[in-house]
Amino acid sequence: MKKIISIVDILTESKKLWLTAFLYTILTGLFVQMILLPHIAPSWHAGNGLMKGMDAPSFHRIALELASSIRSDGWDVWELKPGGQVVSGVAAIFYLLIYPAPWSVLPLNAFLNASATVCLYALLHLLTESRRKSLISTLPFIFFPSALLWNTQFHNENYAIPGVFFILYGWALVLKKEEASFRKDIAAIIFIAVGSLLLGLVRDYILFGISFLFVFLGLPRYCTFSLAEEIRRNV
Question: What's this model's pTM, rounded to 2 decimal places?
Answer without folding.
Answer: 0.84
